[in-house]
Description:
CATH topology: endopeptidase fold (from Nostoc punctiforme)
Order of helices and strands: HHHEEHHEEEEEHE
CATH superfamily: endopeptidase domain like (from Nostoc punctiforme)
Structural class: alpha+beta
Strand content: 15-25%
Main location: membrane
Keywords: Hydrolase, Lipoprotein, Membrane, Palmitate, Protease, Signal, Thiol protease
Largest sheet: 6 strands, antiparallel
Mean pLDDT: 81
Low-confidence stretches: 5-19, 25-47
Distance between the termini: 47 Å
Strand order of the largest sheet: 3-8-4-5-6-7
Number of helices: 6
Helix content: 25-40%
Subcellular location: Membrane
Number of strands: 8
Amino acid sequence: xxxxxxxxxxxxxxxxxxxxxxxxxxxxxxAKVNIKKIDVQLESHVSSKKTDELFHxxxxxxxxxxxxxxxxHKGVDCSGFxxxxxxxxxxxxxxxxxxxxxxxxxxxDYDDRQYGDLVFFKTGFNTLHVGxxxxxxxxxxxxxxxxxxxxxxxxxxxxxxxxxxxxxN
Length: 169
């Protein structure tokens, strides 16, 4: 079967959309995160350089709008946010896509997750999402509805879509 240019373009757009990062609804009242409380907890948690650097990175990127494929302060997606953090903070090159990022590092049991671990979610058919675990069931990520924020992993949406934790040293 021979594809026309239009058919090929439609196919590429469909694949692009189906593999996008996606974030769930952030307007669930039970899923609200007390950002000020987490900010205070993170600022007082100075046990590691990684903690300080990641928190500072979050403060710089906080509320940056979501943009699929984005890698700037004008707009960033979840895997771009994670890739930039690794490059700037840890001087480590990691893959660009959430799918490829989900294969790096070491799988970690949910109960053994630590600050800075990558948390992954399956948010739809062929749709993955990634963020950084913080503490107290919170994670930072680029949400498609709110931009770079901190969310609760135990909110109904994120708890239902949770997939895996990975540690990248």
